[in-house]
Structure formats: structure tokens, C-alpha cells
Specification:
Chains A, B: It holds the Pfam family GCV_T. Chains A, B: InterPro entries: GcvT/YgfZ/DmdA, GCVT_N, TrmE/GcvT-like. 2 copies of one chain form a homodimer. Chain A contains 14 helices and 19 strands. The longest helix of chain A has 14 residues. In chain A, a hairpin with a 6-residue loop joins strand 9 and strand 10. The N and C termini of chain A lie far apart (43 Å). At the A-B interface, helix 3 and helix 13 of A face helix 3 and helix 13 of B.
């Protein structure tokens, strides 16, 4: 089997294919599970400072060449007008039908060179667009690190770190050897890390201001040591964040990392894409998990308006992939909106308690990261009607509750208490979940981002624009 | 600071030193946290088959030379009379005061060559005995793999796997290309794994029969692939066990991996040992965690009778380190006995519930492995009297409860309900635990091993001899 199309032809429908994939848990690889302990690692991004090692869990795609800008403006929905080398963007491509393919952070390193960082679907889609078009671009794809390296060495093109938290600015000044430039949100400048001059993006994944820095992978240990030593010298309680806590930071800041790429249906370019995509791709091997089972995989797709990305759209661009579809979707009453679901404590404890009883328990809620698929889809009900979909889960020690991110119908209001069906209705072949029965968990609809700090102090951007 | 003595001189007493060590969680390194999910990985050692990758978490010490046997018989308490090359033993050294230093599994590979596998304290103590004696032995020490390799390559001298579970025998026959020899418990023979001829120990850590095999590390991937392919061909639901589930298998089988080495006090040889041991040793950096805080570190020590190792003792040997002390300890009414503590479900849920409330929660019970120190010591109370010490914790999905292993006074009976103090009374510098308050958890005293299968079908050995 060479292509995604070949794999799909072996299954009654793509939902069944992905619900029964045996790929396993979507792993945050290489980085140690815990450095101190995941509770303190979560607490530190709110209270002191954290170092996120993001060197391993994301694909990196370098797009270079005289047509690089025009090509990427064609692939992504984003406006490119103000995109100079001191900026980054949240790059979002959609299909010709307007469904989100995925997203990556895109950096402009030179006029003719861009670096994209994120999950595989956007990298794959971008490579495909280069393959079928006539763009003068050179692409280099560095896929994420292996999920279970088992003692083998892992190398990447770049190291990538984030320093976050209220004490982070003191560390920046120390490693830079003096005050750092005032960089607006999602802008890039250069700072010193000891003897190295590195690019730094003003970012803030965990709801507190921070910087993302990157450079040649060979510098990784030097950079890490310099940052940690600076924190020690300043007596800052910095925590390196391990893979168990890492993915939960988004629950507080409100980005959904895992929309299902809207590429399994559709004719024309989409059919061609499925023939082009390898049988070993993320798209052919990823998993859908959760209580929502539809015969129609389109029901799992989301559009950019639903994720709060509508204001990115470069309407002034002559054309880009999906523009016509988005024009129709814009303002549609069927568009859902992004929210945070706050899980009811008693219901969560009921689920946990079943792990202490004989018989088939409820689906285990693993702490701090209960996700058991690369894309989660749990039904959120109002009485007997499905009014939303929960898409990414996690326990926050800071908020002392389990949260999830997802989308709800326009009719749903912040403060509404809905019911989420937790666990799968059928037994699947997935290896990431034990045999279980379904539970009902009440969820309170809350704004996104959930974190008060993020909500109030964020420098503009998509996190503010929803619900 | 060069030695353990130097490090100890910086602290008011060794208990405070170890309770405040910042070494972090005692990690099961390199092996992926989960391959499928830890619930199914636990279930599989009871229901089908598992592959434990034990290549990384243990020190290995090779002892060779004309005096190898005499030397080891001097260092360990074990009888060596019947120790030929087709046997393994559970090697236990004690101090001159009769306190357990640690334990390793010892294999006799040749008449003059032994391999010891286990935690560092026994390897260190054995090296010291060689250093201070006049034995014609050559030692090679291969310490455990780094806790957080961070993408760097890890190499060991040997790979080491166990295949366990009710379906394991079918796999043995398949990889061997025919029926395997009948090997008695803790005896060694040779079997084929595909094209390789390997040593195999009849073992059974998880309460079900199994084999442990080892060989040159370069063969690791071949061996693993051959085993997994055999299981696939046989349609056996084999699970590779990840580092999160791995350490919990001992809760069902009853071995305590983590007694505190009894080496921090005592004169003569023990004082000399502390000067000899490095400041970077396990002993200088390990952690004590738990509710039991004594000024006197001797209160954390155990003797071999308490762990059920009394029947190993080679009384007929002319002498061995600690013999005189053990002679006095034998049959003493102050010797405690090893038991399993079954934690009360409601009390466990109360602790978990506090993670959903504001304020300082109870000490988090992390699933499936709540240990937060290299040696755990939680007080077990009968009314106001401490009658036992809980020493190693874990949740068993098979038994649907949290269990711990420890020792209790002779007066305690199976079935007694005692109260464990969970969490530390004081704030320590340990990095592995968040700020917390103490909880009381009722525990029911249960036999060791707890697992019915292990209790009834074990082929003799220390697991049967306690409580």
C-alpha cells in the first residue's frame, strides 16, 4: 500500500479506519516525562518560570526560494501584507472546501526563506502544494522525533526552547547580558544567550509572557545550560517541563493542537492529495478517539472561523486555496465557536472511582493528559442534542480541574452546563485505551482562554477573539 | 566534596540529607513511558503476555577471577553450596551490623565469572569489598542508563528482557523453534531466539511464569523483533511494558526494590565505606520520602529476616560480612515481617479529590506509580503507635487498588486494618513532590505476594516465606 488512498480503500470509511488505527498514543517524544514533578511544572508556568523543550515534538518545514512568499500566501489563509523578517504568524491552510488542514507557526528568516513549525498535516499539505504547482521553491522537511527512540540518538535541524512565566523576563536580561529589546507579541528579534546570538519570538503559550528561541541543534546543550545557570544565579525557581505536563499548557491558553485535517473527503485536489500522501503518513495512521462516532468524517472537520482564526484571513489576496469556500462560510450561523469545557469535579471523581471497582470501568482519565488519540472528539450534549465537540483534554493543577477545548453551536452560552459523553461507545482496535464503558460528565462552558492571566494580559491575537 | 562522608558532614544528620536531596524521581529510564497504555500493560501480565525491557534501569557488575566465588560468598549472606552455572540467586549483602545493603540477581556464567544485576548500592558495596580485601577478582561495573538521556544514545553491556504471562510459554516454544527445556525456578538454561543462542533464567516477577534472557546489547533489536514477531504470528496479545507500568509489577509479586542501604551509620568498615563512596553515588544523592521522619537513620534500615530472606543465609559458611550480627538477629521478636498494604478506596479517593479543591492538597497519588523517592518510608499506625513502615507503592489495575509493600511488627496480623500517614509532615527540598498536607489512609494488612496467582503457583522462594 503506497498511499493514503490505498489505505482508505481497505476500510469501510475513514472514520472507522482512524478510530481503529493502532498507532498508539500521540506522544511528546524524547523529552523526559518529568524533571521535577508535573504538578510543580504546571504551577511554575503560572508562578515562577519554566523551560519548555520544544525541540522534538513538531515537524519543521523550511521553504526557500524566489517564490517562497507567493507560494505560502497561496497555501495559507493568512494575510501576508505585513510579514517581514521580524514577525511570525500562525499559518493556517484550509482545503478547497474551507476545512482546516492544520496549523504551524511560520517564521520569516530571510526575504526568501521561511520556517514552519507544527504538526505533520500542514507540512504534508504544503509539500503537496509545491509538488503540484510550478513554484520556484526549495523545501526541506525535518519530521518530528521518533515516539520511542529506545536509546538511539535523535538529531534535529534546530533546538527550540521557550522560557515562560512571570520570572522569565529576569532570565532574559541575564542571558542577554543586559535589557532585551521590547518585542511586540509574535514579533522576532535577536538576543544573546551567553556567547550565542539567537532569534527570539515573543510568545506566550501558557498564558504568561515569554520568548521562544531556536538555533542549530548542536548548540542545544549550551543554550539549555546557559538558561538554567542564569536562573540558578538569580535564585529563580525555574522548572524544566517534562512531556507529561507539556501538552496541558494549551488548556490554559486555549489553542487546539489537534483538529482532524479535512482531507479525507472531497474531489479534485483533495483526491489527488490522498493519492500523493504516503501510507506511512500522519493522516493514514493517526487516530480519532472519543464518544463521537459519525459515518461521515466531514462531521469531525472544523473551519477557521470556528477556531477563532477568521481574522487572519487575507481577503485582499487575489486567491488562495479555499478562498471561495471561506467566503461562503463567513458569518454562517452553522459556524461553531471555540470554548473551554470545565469538567464537573464529582463526575470526574466518579470516573476515577470506577478504577477501584470490579468489572468494566469508565474510560480512565489519565493525569495530567487524558487524550488517547491524535484527534479527540467527544460529544457534548444539551439534553438529547449534540451541541458541541470536545477536542483536547487536560488536568490543570493551577486551576484544580480537568479542562477541555472544543467547539459549540452558536446557541450555547458561557456558563451553560452541558453533558459530555466520555469514552467510546464501541470497542476499537486502538492500543491507547483500555476496555471501558461510557460515562456522562457535566461540563460548564467557559471562555477561551480559560486562564485569567492569559485572558486579561494577552497582547491581542486569536486567543482573545472567541466565545 | 569527594566522598559520601564529605557530603554527610554538610548536614545535621543523614536523614535530613536524604529527605532534602534534589536528585528527583527515581526513574525507570530510556524505555518509553507507555507502548499501548499502562492499564492494558498491567492487565497483560496477568491475562496474556508481556515483554519487559530491563536493559536500562539496573546496574550490572561483572565479577571474574580465580577468587570470584570465594569473594562473593564473603560479601553476600547467601549459601553458595549448590551454585553452579545453571542457577541464579537473589544475592543479598548486609553490613557488619546485619542491615541489608541491597540486593541483586546473581548469575554464574562460568566457574570464575558472575554477573550481578540490580540497584547501585549492592554494586558499590561489592566493589568496596574488593577494594579493601585481597581477592584475585576483576570487576567491571556498568551503571544504569542516564535518567534523562535527552536524545543522546545510550549503550549498555547487555540487553535484558523478560517475557511473562500465561501466554509466554507459547512464545518461548516459537522463538526456540521447538519445546524449551524444563527449567526449574531461578535456574538458567540456553534457548534459541531466532538465530541467537541466549541464556534464559526461569523467573516470574509479575506472579506468572516467565523467562529472563540477556546477551550483547548489539543484539537488542534483533531479539526484541524476533519475540514480537513470534507473538504476532501466534496471535498473542503481547504488550511491551513501558516505564510507567513497569515498576508496579512488584506490588503483585511482593519484592521490595528499595530498602535504604544500612550504611550511613556504624564504625570500622562502615566508616571506611563512607569515605570510599563517591559524592556522586546513589547513597549520597538518593532520596528518602514519606511520612516517617526519624532523627536516627538506623530506624529506616531493614534486616534480611524482615524481608523474608532469612532462609538464604549460608550459616555453614565459615564467615561472611555480617554473620555474627545475623546470628544475634535470628528469631528476635523485634524483627518485623513483610506484608502488602491494601489502601482503602474511599481514603484514596479523598486524597485525589483534594486535587480538585483550592488550597494545599493532600500528597498527589500519581498513577500507577506514586513513589516520589528512591526509598519510601510511610508510617503505618495502630492507634497512636507506629507498627509498620510502607516502603513501595503502586496502583494495580488487575487488583483495582493501590497497594504498598512494607514491614510490620510481629503483633500485626493479616486482615488488620491500620492507618498509614501519607505525605510528609515537613516541607523538604525534594523536587519530586509538590507542596502538600498529610492524609490518613486506612490500609488492610494482606499477605505477600498479594496476587493470588503468584501466591498459589510460585515454585518456592522468598516470595512464599513471609507473613
Amino acid at each position: 500500500m503506497a498511499s493514503l488512498s490505498d489505505v482508505m480503500s481497505q476500510h469501510p470509511n475513514p472514520v472507522q479506519m482512524l478510530r481503529n488505527s493502532r498507532m498508539g498514543i500521540y506522544v511528546y517524544p524524547v523529552v523526559a516525562p518529568e524533571f521535577t514533578n508535573w504538578r510543580d511544572e504546571q504551577r511554575a508556568w503560572r508562578d515562577s518560570a519554566v523551560l519548555f523543550d520544544q525541540s522534538h515534538h513538531m515537524d519543521e518545514l523550511i521553504v526557500e526560494g524566489p517564490d517562497a512568499e507567493a507560494f505560502l500566501a497561496h497555501v495559507g489563509i493568512n494575510g501576508f501584507a505585513n510579514f517581514d523578517t521580524n514577525r511570525a504568524k500562525h499559518f493556517v491552510p484550509v482545503t478547497p472546501n474551507g476545512h482546516v488542514v492544520g496549523d504551524m507557526i511560520i517564521f520569516r528568516e530571510r526575504d526568501d526563506k521561511f520556517i514552519l513549525v507544527g504538526r505533520a498535516p500542514t507540512a504534508n499539505w504544503t509539500k503537496f502544494q509545491a509538488a503540484i504547482g510550478k513554484w520556484k521553491v526549495r523545501l526541506h522537511h525535518d519530521p518530528r522525533s521518533p515516539s520511542r527512540p529506545d536509546g538511539e540518538r535523535v538529531l534535529r535541524t534546530h533546538y527550540r526552547y521557550q522560557i515562560q512565566g512571570p520570572d522569565a523576563p529576569k532570565i532574559f536580561e541575564k542571558i542577554n547580558g543586559g535589557p532585551i529589546p521590547e518585542v511586540p507579541f509574535f514579533h522576532v528579534d535577536r538576543i544573546n544567550v551567553g556567547s550565542r546570538r539567537v532569534q527570539a519570538l515573543r510568545h506566550g503559550m501558557a498564558g504568561a509572557p515569554g520568548l521562544e528561541i531556536w538555533g542549530p541543534y548542536a548548540d542545544k546543550h549550551y543554550i539549555e545550560s546557559t538558561i538554567l545557570q542564569a536562573a540558578r544565579d538569580l535564585k529563580i525557581d525555574i522548572h524544566q517541563v517534562g512531556s507529561r505536563a507539556y501538552s496541558t499548557n494549551t488548556l490554559e491558553s486555549g489553542w487546539i493542537p489537534s483538529p482532524l485535517p479535512g482531507i479525507y473527503t472531497g474531489d479534485g485536489m483533495l483526491a489527488e492529495y490522498r493519492d500523493w500522501l504516503g501510507a506511512d503518513s500522519y493522516e493514514a495512521n493517526g487516530t480519532i478517539g472519543g464518544s463521537f462516532v459519525s459515518e461521515n468524517i466531514d462531521d469531525y472537520y472544523v473551519n477557521p472561523f470556528e477556531l477563532g482564526y477568521g481574522f487572519y484571513i487575507g481577503w485582499k489576496k487575489d486567491d488562495f486555496v479555499g478562498k471561495a469556500a471561506l467566503e461562503k462560510m463567513k458569518g454562517a450561523s452553522s459556524n461553531r465557536k471555540k470554548v473551554t469545557f470545565e469538567w464537573n469535579k464529582e463526575d470526574v471523581l466518579k470516573v476515577i472511582a470506577s478504577g477501584f471497582e470490579d468489572g468494566t470501568p469508565y474510560k480512565w482519565i489519565d493525569f495530567p493528559q487524558p487524550n488517547y488519540a491524535s484527534s479527540s472528539a467527544d460529544m457534548v450534549m444539551q439534553d438529547d442534542k449534540m451541541v458541541g465537540m470536545s477536542m483536547f483534554n487536560g488536568y490543570s493543577y493551577n486551576e484544580r480541574c480537568v479542562l477541555s477545548l472544543g467547539v459549540v453551536d452558536q446557541s450555547v452560552e458561557v456558563g451553560d452546563v452541558l453533558t459530555m459523553r466520555w469514552g467510546e461507545p464501541e470497542e476499537t482496535q486502538k492500543t491507547s485505551g483500555e476496555k471501558h464503558k461510557q460515562a456522562e460528565i457535566r461540563v460548564r462552558v467557559s471562555p477561551t482562554p480559560y486562564s485569567r492571566e492569559a485572558r486579561e494580559n494577552y497582547g491581542g491575537g486569536w486567543r482573545k477573539t472567541t466565545a
